[in-house]
Amino acid sequence: MPITSVDTDRDALTLTIVADFAATKQRLWDAYADPRQIEQFWGPETYPATFFRHDMFPGGQSRYSMTGPDGDTSAGYWEFLRVDAPDAFEVLDGFCGDDGEPNPDMPSMRVRFTFDETADGSRMTAVTHFHSVDELEQLLEMGMLEGMTSAMSQIDLVLADLKTFAAEIPTQMQKLSDTQIRVSRVIRGSVEDVWRAHHDADLVRRWMYGPDGWEFTECIPPAGEGSSTRYRWSPGDGVEGEAFSIIGDVLASEEPHRIVHTEQMEGLPGTTINELTLTPVPEGTLLVYVMTYESAEVRDQVLATGMTDGMEMSYDRLEGVLA
Question: Which residues does residue 234 pair with via DSSP β-bridges, in sequence order?
Answer without folding.
Answer: 215
